[in-house]
Known about the structure:
Layout: H1 4-7, E1 10-18, H2 22-31, E2 47-55, E3 72-84, H3 86-99, E4 107-112
Antiparallel strand pairs: 1-3, 1-4, 2-3
Helix pairs in contact: 2-3
Amino acid sequence: MASAVSALPRFKLVFRVPEPALPACKAAIFSAGAGRYPGGQYTECCFTTLGTGQFRPGDTARPHLGKVGELEEVPEARVEALCVGEDVARSAVSALKKAHPYETPAYEVYRLEDF
Length: 115
């Protein structure tokens, strides 16, 4: 028989963030409940990879980095974290949006299947 925790839907939150803002964004999603595995034995779990983000701010943008009209490349981290329960996923996204320095943070949420 499955436990109530294992019956909750699982999601993966994936986001990109400039490296200087990485600790604040991770702290925010972890405070919202992301990165906890069922059973409570592991918390603040995530996978982080480094790469380069690229964007060109449009005429009405207010970029945190770079200048309007100019192509910008930024060292960024990609973070992947488990969210157990839709409420945790939504809370983590909300916390990420508040902590992230960009006008519109790049993130995705995927529903996970258990096979």
